[in-house]
Design goal:
The radius of gyration is 27 Å and the shape is globular. The protein is about 5% helix and about 35% strand. It is built from four helices and 43 strands. It has about 625 residues and is mostly beta strands. Helix 1 crosses helix 2. It folds into three domains: about 220 residues, no CATH class; about 45 residues, no CATH class; about 240 residues. A nine-stranded parallel sheet has the order 17-18-20-23-26-29-32-35-37.
């Protein structure tokens, strides 16, 4: 059953510390009904504003399910929010009891939304994403990736200010948008809306750009939440039964009946107009399954004598390809017509791949793409590792990894182009068209000391949409990350990346015409600015730099202060940090997009900045206790 909107309301109060009852009986507007019914999901978002000495400890509704109590106390005006929810029983609630503001000086605001058709077992599709900021009262929720068709995305945000103001609805959330502000010693603001247009992939909700406040002492908190639709009706009938399908999809019928009947049998269904028709289950199932692409796996290993790549063997006709470039030459094709995903696993015993990789000749789309990844024991990490798979050589006028595939995933690959020739770079990626026509993702990749004389960039991209997660650029003669070379259109997302010791800029967002988002990243030790001009970035969130460019927080590029990296010596750099690091536990929760670090370790709240999480493993040797920082 699809999710439906029942109705909503907003409100608030000042000068009170008692609880208060908010009526939801006959007071809802904008949807199917003015009151909730049995099975409806009621969600309330409550905000409060305060300052030191007057803080609330909870905004949870007693007797309801409650989300995490969120707070931001980084500046003079403290902001708080918490959402609570409840499925209505046969006797729906008529009021919601809102808890205390925490102090008579604190203003409080709330919004209620009621939904129908939400999954009663798992109402929230994926983990909630939390974000916060200071220096403005305009929230900017983090990106999230729903997992279920028909999911709705919820925008929840609150802020505190000396003088509050109502939010103007952000892009895509204007339908039934609700906002409230209240004036007290510390003014509260809240906004809550929903988006119904998600179909696939990551979605990054827009920030408040009008309304609200922008004072230096203002703060905000925000959550991105996803509602999961209720499951389709299940079938317990025998094949001879008549089933009413007026509320379910044909695909659900096919899935449910495959275990009850053979493909050659037929099942009689009562269709919408009560006309008995015969439906051939085998035809339905064939139509439903034929669109699922097949994953085809091949292997690369520089120790191989060369084969067709169907096995990881090192000799024989089925042996791995001897280079990634040899794999591409042999395998490039139309994946759309083949209805396939091409996966290639790169491994080594110790030898480097000394042939520059050209990824070209592929026809792809969002579901039939190229996936290049290092083997489990060959993944790149926070420093160069000459025992793992790597593309390493002096590739004059070339890139170590050069791709024009429009839909591409690259995981765990490390590259070093030691040529001093012009344009000798590490990763060069071209989406081949407008950002909307491509989806290129690099996860846990390392760009190490590209030596090109003018543009030895670490990661160089153009013409497409690019997502970088847990990627590291070290010691390149150009920029660590450079978007939009040749002034082409780019949409980029950089999450938990590190760019250090480069001769150019750390993160170069190109022109203001691009759409660039950077979160939880660090840059330091670069000859150029650590981050390019603010005008090149649509969103900069919880990022740290050594030089403070783009109004970022600062942390020294050092082994003894600030970032506390393991090694910052050129050629031996290791950007894993040790315990005192300023990067530890200060990041934005991006678990709606990804959940692990460059080494595959699960990230926990509060998130760390950069590609790796802080880990301590203790072991004893003789009379000593040795701590391994990971």
């Amino acid at each position: 059953m699809a999710i439906q909107y029942v109705g909503g309301l907003d409100g608030g109060r000042v000068g009170s510390t008692s609880t208060t009852n908010v009526s939801i009986n006959g007071t809802l507007t904008g949807g199917l009904a003015s009151s909730p019914s049995e099975g409806d999901l009621v969600v309330i978002l409550i905000s409060a504003a305060s300052a030191s000495g007057y803080v609330p400890t909870t905004l949870a509704v007693s007797g309801w399910n409650n989300g995490t109590f969120r707070s931001n106390t980084g500046v003079a005006n403290y902001s708080y929010q918490q959402h609570s929810w409840k499925f209505m029983t046969a006797t729906p609630d008529t009021v919601i009891t809102v808890p205390s503001t925490g102090n008579i000086r604190n203003a409080q605001s709330w919004v209620v939304h009621v939904f129908r058709g939400v999954n009663a077992t798992t109402p929230f599709d994926v983990a909630t994403v939390f974000a916060s900021g200071t220096g403005t009262g305009r929230p900017n929720p983090g990106p999230i990736t729903p997992s279920t068709e028909g999911a709705w995305i919820l925008w929840m945000g609150a802020s505190a200010a000396a003088t509050g103001a109502l939010y103007t609805a952000p892009t895509n959330f204007s339908t039934n948008w609700h906002t409230d502000t209240r004036v007290d010693n510390y003014d509260s603001m809240v906004g809550f809306g929903y988006y119904t247009g998600w179909s696939s992939g990551q979605y990054d909700p827009a920030a408040i750009t009008a309304g609200g406040t922008t004072g230096a002492t203002d703060s905000w908190v925000a959550e991105t939440v996803v509602l999961r639709p209720s499951a389709a009706q299940s079938f317990n009938e025998t094949p001879s039964d008549t089933v009413n399908v007026s509320e379910v999809l044909v695909k659900s019928i096919a899935t449910a009946t495959t275990e009850l009947v053979s493909f050659s049998e037929t099942v009689t269904f009562q269709l919408f107009k009560n006309i008995n028709e015969t439906v051939n289950v085998s035809e339905i199932v064939t139509d439903d399954w034929s669109d699922i692409p097949t994953t085809v796996t091949r292997y690369v290993n520089p120790h191989s004598t060369g084969g067709d790549g169907t096995t990881p063997n090192l000799t024989g006709t089925t042996a791995a390809y001897a280079s990634l470039n040899a794999w591409n030459t042999a395998r490039a094709r139309n994946l759309i017509s083949a209805n396939e995903i091409e996966e290639v696993i790169c491994e080594t015993e110790s030898n480097a791949d000394t042939v520059p990789a050209s990824i070209a000749g592929w026809t792809t789309d969002a579901t039939r793409y190229v996936h290049i990844k290092a083997g489990d024991n060959d993944r790149a990490s926070t420093t160069w590792d000459a025992t793992k798979y790597r593309i390493d050589g002096a590739f004059e006028f070339l890139s170590a990894f050069d791709s024009d595939a429009q839909h591409l995933r690259v995981e765990g690959i490390q590259c070093r182009n030691s040529s001093t020739g012009v344009d000798s770079t590490n990763f060069k990626l071209d989406g081949g068209g407008a950002p909307a026509n491509s989806d290129i993702r690099l996860i846990g990749c390392l760009a190490w000391y590209a030596a090109g004389s003018t543009t030895g960039h670490g990661f160089l991209v153009r013409n497409g949409t690019f997502t970088f997660i847990n990627c590291v650029a070290v010691g390149n003669t150009g920029d660590g990350f450079q978007t939009d070379f040749d002034a082409s259109g780019v949409t980029s997302y950089l999450y938990n990346c590190i760019s250090v010791g480069n001769v150019g800029l750390g993160f170069n967002g190109g022109s203001a015409s691009n759409t660039n988002t950077i979160r939880n990243c660090y840059a330091g030790g670069n000859t150029g600015n650590d981050i390019s001009s603010v005008s090149a970035w649509d969103t900069i969130q919880t990022c740290y730099t050594e030089d403070g460019t783009a109004s970022t927080l600062t942390a020294a590029y050092s082994t003894t202060s600030g970032a506390y990296f393991i090694n910052v010596t050129p050629g031996n750099t290791n950007v894993r940090f040790t315990s005192p690091s300023a990067l530890r536990g200060v990041g934005t929760d991006l678990s709606g997009t990804f959940t692990t670090d460059i080494d595959g370790i699960t990230r926990t709240v509060p998130w760390d900045i950069g590609a790796s999480v802080y880990q301590v493993v203790a072991s004893s040797q003789g009379n000593f206790l040795i701590f391994m920082i990971g």
